[in-house]
Specification:
The complex is a heterotrimer.
Chain A (H helix, E strand, L loop, with lengths): L5 E9 L8 H23 L4 H25 L7 H18 L4 H23 L4 H19 L23 H28 L1 H11 L1 H6 L4 H27 L9 H15 L8 H8 L5 H5 L1 H15 L3 H15 L2 H28 L55 E9 L16 E10 L2 E11 L3 E6 L6 H9 L6 E6 L2 E2 L5 H7 L1 E3 L12 H6 L18 H14 L15 H14 L4 E5 L7 H15 L3 E5 L3 H7 E8 L2 E6 L1 H6 L1 H8 L3
Parallel strand pairs in A: 5-10, 5-11, 8-9, 9-10
Antiparallel strand pairs in A: 1-2, 3-4, 3-6, 6-7, 11-12
Helix pairs in contact in A: 1-2, 1-6, 2-6, 2-9, 2-10, 2-11, 3-4, 3-9, 4-9, 6-7, 6-9, 10-11, 10-14, 19-20
Chain B lengths: L1 E11 L2 E12 L3 E5 L6 H9 L4 E7 L10 H7 L2 E4 L11 H6 L11 H14 L16 H14 L4 E5 L7 H16 L3 E6 L3 H6 L2 E6 L2 E5 L10
Parallel strand pairs in B: 3-7, 3-8, 5-6, 6-7
Antiparallel strand pairs in B: 1-2, 1-4, 8-9
Chain C lengths: L1 H28 L6 H19 L3 H30 L4 H24 L15 E3 L2 E3 L1 H23 L1 H9 L3 H6 L4 H27 L6 H14 L5 H22 L4 H15 L12
Antiparallel strand pairs in C: 1-2
Helix pairs in contact in C: 1-5, 1-8, 1-9, 1-10, 2-3, 2-4, 2-8, 2-9, 3-4, 3-8, 5-6, 5-8, 9-10, 10-11
Classes of the chains: A alpha/beta, B alpha/beta, C mainly alpha.
């Protein structure tokens, strides 16, 4: 029997199950319906006092804020151009309706489509820059817009354009207002639902990770540039939609609504409501629009009041009003932390139950036999003992043939998902034997005579390294020897000045990191790069999601449940299963490293690159880590850059010593310990 | 000069990092502080240096700072200088500037004479830094950064120099050189307090061992012999 | 043409000095103070109010306002900045940016409430006849302004570079623990720099107001341009901020005079946009993701 391991990149397709999505999605729909009902009721009840008029302004702004939640709140893309795209929507509808007589509904559609086109082009240029730069550039766009409109007589100059037809005409002016308001609210509810579905699912997790760490996202196969443009387009399209609704509700469009101070007011609105809880997106705009109606002093000194309000809020309620709501909801749902932990234990127990069921099913046979997805070997094989309450270790039958990465169909209450069928794209590789029908590559990953220079200094010169089958391949050397540079050349962080890099038989020398990741390369970082806005479980689950889905896909199909299940299984193998739902800041360094390791391995890569993973760990923790390394390396090749020579001696199959960018020694551990040049350079013994 | 800790407890929120520590350190002693990571070694050094708040008393030569004075500034002025864990250098300032900043401990003016003197002393101890004086500290290797951090500490003219995990992240050969330097400092008569997780090097250097386990401190009687190391 | 250029230099000095104030503060404490323009405008309005409504001598008015501003800055630092710094170190810069944004709204609103919406200016501190050099007409306040800009900026640059305290200021923004172990109390240094930068901005507004005149709302756009200049100086180098500020002012004036006056702002910002997009590295790490 040939001992094989099949590394697989699984393509998951949702098999349509009978009926609707699971309970989680129903909850979201329910909440959006509730939003519609509450706001709609307010429109109906207060049609002619300041509440109704404020809502008429607030709802369109709320649509814009929803887009900002995605862009700024989750993706940390500090794009401040919403006002520009609002203007596109408002003026666009005004032009189409007033000048060309096109009905408002159709005009809205046209304008949103145009916005997608325009923002795609703008986004391609703008979303490439990050940090403060994109904030400045988008702010410049706002300034340029504000100063252009007032000079255009076609757009009505400083006076503006109108009258724009209402969204829905009613019998009287009042009922028109109310009905238009209801239409706008319906749009807000629908938009909220769409965005919630996106944020809850894999794309939402990608967006969060992208905002936290560009490198980590790329290392998992996320195409950062494209996602950023998608985020920009989504935010801008929603801003345009808001602008169109604005025109339809107000009936008049003027340039004072679209200047830099309006952009700042939008930021304030985001902060007040939507940032923490997207359902509260309408709260911020409503408060700000309603403020002038409180009394005349407020109306005349609105800037001052806003300043005071903003300062007070930032000091007392940094997460905004939405944050209060979120905290309350969390408390109601999870109760005290102890309850949350019990829930986690229950969930993992359910998972293990499903695992047993799957194994029994395999034993009984059948075409759709289900076996745990993690082909990293069963927990018992890895020798882990009972992991705590609810843990059930059973002797699953050893799969006789190639391990296919099927998934378990587990209903664990919360995580109800339609059934999945996994089709693995299998690449079998063994140490030295041929497998029928499989592609064999003796060298999984290799660099040939690579050179990389920085500012005239060669960090790496003429280095050749080959990583073959399973085992730990260590790269050691003093600081500044080129170890990190070599790792970056292998993983795609840098392009070499000379030489080639090869992965799975393909030339990947200039292939970007994300593409190498999708081929099956994964890595960890010297400074752990996790996302503080995702739960530990979701941090790992990002490693298991399919990375190629468009930004709107989660509206139709959800894949996060399965990814989470895989993640939890992997986390248990690395002894961090019990932190799955803890807040990220409570994790110790060892837990964080294990989490990052889980994330790197959950996607079943062909090779994993570890960058000084033991740094900062105590002696005891290193000993445990050496065991973990040994077990991982039984399944796939591991490239390890390390300082700790004792650790290296314990686990290495091949040691490569880099000094001053050149290879000093390459061979096995014994040779490494006895080689005189190595002893002199690294250990200072002669 | 004498540093006294009397019933010192260091807390981070609800976690007790160091509990009821009583300790005396003289400026003629070399003390090794050992124990597993996360057990209180850093907290001990930080409390003495004034970087962590604590309950209890820490006195230098019988005195404590007034409530209004920042404890860290007071400690440095009294000659108790810490070389922090992970160096805490200023990455975008030159090596020279990093070291010269140590002089803030006793002066507000950098005369040319003082500057030359400090740099001469530094190069005497760490000749390898000569070519790096104008480089940004962030571009140096770990071992070189450790040298700069020690040089900065020495520029403050300490009576007692404390080092928190100086060999963290350094290759073996660099650690050997580091401890050679510390021996030299010892023979010059400076007090040393070195906190290390792997005790081998530190114990060889020092004549008193303080072991910190789960926040509790135990002092090993001097002289220390290698068999007493757990 | 020369007069346009000169006017551009004058406004450029203003953008640059605001940028320099932002730079020095960021350098020491990682706080971006976009309210600096509004504070300068408020100071000008306040001094003008003291002069017209209470008949005070201009220097006395300036003294009162500067003292009040110093007290206010002390209060703001103690009540807002320090607690936030103690609370969160991760998003500190972003959070403080929002705070200064709120402060800008507050100052503007207060200015509107107290001083109305007319334009005010402080009488020139160096008054007299204008100078004439060829076709160039140079007003005395303008000379004073430019002279103060050059001298103050050069002095600040030298101070930061060559003195021990200057190095301490730079170090405070790079490593908190590091400055503590050399005996620095970073909170005190940051407080002093905050008060200093606010007073400098205020004084500068007072100096420029005879030429430009302020209303309660002039401040934000000036502060924003100051931020732009500072951004090109990577938020840390005051001399570079002033140079960039002057370049922006000159570009603005030349475009306004020669290309188009209505779309002047559009073009200036268009140029800035292109520059940043073409070379995001010009903002240093502020322009990148990791």
């Amino acid at each position: 029997m040939v001992d094989q391991r099949v590394g697989s990149i699984a393509r998951m397709e949702a098999r349509p199950s009978a009926g609707k999505d699971g309970p989680r999605s129903l909850r979201d729909v329910g909440r959006c319906v509730l939003l519609f009902v509450i706001v709609g009721a307010l429109f109906l009840l207060f049609p002619d006092n300041f509440i109704g008029t404020s809502l008429g302004l607030a709802v369109p702004y709320a649509v814009v804020v929803v887009g900002m939640v995605v862009q700024i709140g989750h993706g940390r893309q500090l794009a401040l151009s919403q006002v520009v795209f609002m203007a596109l929507g408002a003026y666009g509808v005004a032009i189409l309706n007033v000048n060309m007589g096109i009905p408002v509904g159709l005009a809205t559609v046209v304008v949103v489509v145009a916005s997608v086109a325009v923002s795609s082009v703008v986004g391609l240029v703008v979303a490439r820059v990050g940090g403060l730069a994109i904030g400045l550039v988008t702010l410049f766009l706002v300034v340029m817009l504000a100063n252009s409109i007032i000079y255009s007589s076609y757009l009505g100059g400083t006076t503006g354009m109108g009258p724009v037809a209402p969204l829905l005409s009613g019998a009287s002016a009042q009922s028109t207002q109310v009905e238009s308001g209801l239409v706008a609210t319906a749009v807000l509810a629908v938009v909220t639902l769409l965005v919630v579905r996106i944020l809850r699912d894999d794309v939402g997790a990608e967006i969060n990770l992208l905002g936290a760490s560009n490198r980590a996202a790329s290392s998992l196969g996320i195409r950062a540039g494209r996602r950023r443009v998608e985020i920009f387009v989504l935010g801008s399209a929603l801003a345009t939609l808001g602008g169109a609704l604005f025109a339809g509700l107000q009936g008049f469009v003027s340039p004072t609504e679209f200047d830099p101070s309006s952009e700042l007011t939008l930021l304030l609105m985001l902060f007040l409501g939507g940032q923490a809880a997207i359902y509260c997106a309408v709260v911020g705009p409503f408060l700000i629009e309603a403020l002038p109606g409180v009394n005349s002093f407020v109306a005349n000194n609105i800037t001052l009041i806003e300043g005071v309000l903003f300062t007070a809020l930032l000091t007392l309620l940094p997460m905004g009003i939405g944050g209060l709501w979120r905290a309350a909801a969390d408390f109601v749902r999870h109760g005290s932390p102890a309850r949350a932990e019990r829930r986690t234990a229950r969930a993992s127990a359910h998972d293990r139950l499903g695992w047993i069921v799957g194994n029994v099913a395999t034993a009984v046979g059948g075409p759709r036999a289900r076996v745990p997805a993690s082909s990293l070997a069963t927990a018992s094989e890895l020798g882990f003992g009972t992991a705590g309450p609810g843990a059930v270790m059973s002797q699953g039958p050893e799969p006789a043939g190639p391990v296919q990465a099927f998934t378990t169909l587990t209903h664990t209450g919360e995580q109800d998902e339609p059934g999945f069928v996994v089709e693995p794209v299998a690449v079998a590789h063994t140490d030295d034997s041929l497998t029928v029908g499989a592609t064999v590559s003796p060298t999984v990953l290799g660099a040939r005579e690579v050179t990389k220079t920085f500012g005239g200094v060669a960090a790496v010169s003429d280095v050749t390294i080959a990583i073959g089958g399973r085992g730990v391949y260590c790269i050691v050397g003093p600081n500044g020897a080129g170890k990190s540079t070599l790792l970056e050349l292998l993983s795609g962080g840098h392009v070499p000045d000379g030489g080639t890099v090869e992965f799975l038989g393909r030339d990947v020398t200039s292939m970007p990191a994300w593409r190498r990741a999708r081929l099956g390369m994964s890595r960890t970082f010297q400074n752990v790069e996790l996302c503080d806005t995702l739960s530990p479980l979701d941090n790992v689950a990002v490693g298991a999601i399919p990375k190629h889905r468009g930004i709107l896909r989660p509206v139709f199909k959800s894949v996060m449940g399965e990814a989470r299940r895989q993640a939890l299984r992997t986390m248990e193998l690395f002894d961090v299963g019990d932190v799955a739902h803890l807040p990220m800041h409570r994790l110790t360094l060892a837990q964080e490293r294990n989490l990052e390791l889980s994330r790197a391995l959950v996607g079943e890569p062909q090779v994993v690159l570890l960058d000084e993973p033991a740094s900062g760990l105590s002696e005891q923790q290193r000993a445990v880590f050496a065991d973990v390394l040994a077990r991982i390396s039984r399944q796939l090749p591991v490239v390890l850059v390390e300082h700790d020579l004792n650790l290296v001696a314990k686990v290495a199959k091949v040691v490569t010593v880099l000094v001053n960018g050149k290879i000093l020694y390459e061979g096995d551990v014994e040779g490494f310990e006895n080689d005189p040049a190595v002893r002199q350079h690294l250990r200072g013994l002669s | 000069m004498k540093i006294e800790l009397i019933d010192v407890t260091v807390r981070y929120g609800s976690i007790i990092a160091l509990s009821n520590c009583d300790l005396v350190i003289g400026s003629d002693e070399a003390v090794a502080v050992i124990g597993p990571n996360g057990n209180g070694k850093s907290s001990l050094l930080k409390a003495i240096a004034g970087l962590a708040s604590f309950d209890g008393h820490i006195r230098v030569d019988g005195q404590e700072p007034s409530r209004r004075t920042a404890r860290s500034s007071w400690a440095v002025r009294r000659g108790v200088v810490l070389v922090p864990e992970r160096r805490a250098l200023f990455p975008r300032m030159t090596v020279r500037d990093n070291i010269l900043l140590g002089c803030y401990a006793f002066t507000r003016r950098l005369s040319t004479r003082l500057r030359d003197q400090v740099m001469a002393e530094t190069l005497d101890l760490f000749p390898e830094l000569e070519t790096k004086l104008n480089s940004d500290a962030g571009t140096l290797s770990g071992g070189q950064q450790q040298m700069v951090a020690i040089a900065r500490g020495l520029a403050s003219r300490p009576s007692v120099l404390m080092l928190d995990e100086p060999s963290l992240g350094l290759a073996e050969i660099v650690v050997h050189k580091l401890y050679d330097t510390l021996s030299t400092l010892r023979t010059e008569g400076r007090g040393l307090v070195v906190a290390e997780e792997s005790p081998v090097n530190a114990i060889r250097l020092c004549d008193k061992v303080v072991s910190v386990e789960r926040g509790t401190v135990a002092v090993a009687p001097a002289p220390v012999r290698s068999e007493m190391i757990p | 043409m020369l007069n346009d250029l000169f006017a551009g230099i004058v406004s450029g000095c203003m953008y640059g000095v605001f940028g320099a104030c932002i730079c020095v503060l960021f350098r020491v404490s990682k706080v971006v103070n976009i309210a600096i323009g509004d504070l300068a405008a408020f100071a000008t309005l306040a001094v003008a109010w003291f002069i017209t409504n209470h008949g005070l001598n201009v220097w006395v008015g300036i003294l009162i306002v500067l003292v009040a501003f110093a007290l206010f800055s002390y209060a703001y630092d103690t009540l807002v900045t320090r607690p936030i710094a103690a609370r969160s170190s991760k998003n500190f810069t972003a959070v403080m940016f929002f705070f200064t944004l709120a402060l800008s709204l507050l100052v503007e609103g207060l200015g509107q409430l107290l001083f109305g919406s007319e334009v005010h200016g402080v009488p020139a501190l160096w008054s007299g006849a204008n100078f004439k050099i060829g076709s160039l007409i140079v007003e005395r306040p303008a000379i004073l302004l430019i002279a103060v800009t050059v001298v103050a900026t050069a002095a600040m640059g030298a101070f930061l570079r060559y003195t021990l305290i200057g190095r301490v200021i730079t170090a405070c923004g790079q490593n908190e623990t590091g400055v503590r172990v050399v005996g620095v109390n970073p909170n005190r240094i940051r407080l002093v720099c905050f008060i200093g930068s606010v007073l400098a901005g205020a004084m500068f507004g007072i100096l420029v107001s005879p030429l430009l005149g302020f209303t309660y709302s002039s401040g934000l756009s000036l502060g924003t341009l100051g931020l732009v200049a500072a951004a090109f100086a990577r938020l840390v180098n005051p001399i570079r901020a002033v140079v960039v500020g002057i370049l922006i002012g000159v570009a603005e004036a030349l475009i306004g005079g020669y290309v188009t006056s209505s779309y002047q702002v559009v073009m200036v910002f268009g140029v800035l946009t292109v520059v940043i997009l073409a070379r995001p590295k010009i903002l240093g790490t502020l322009g990148s993701f990791d």
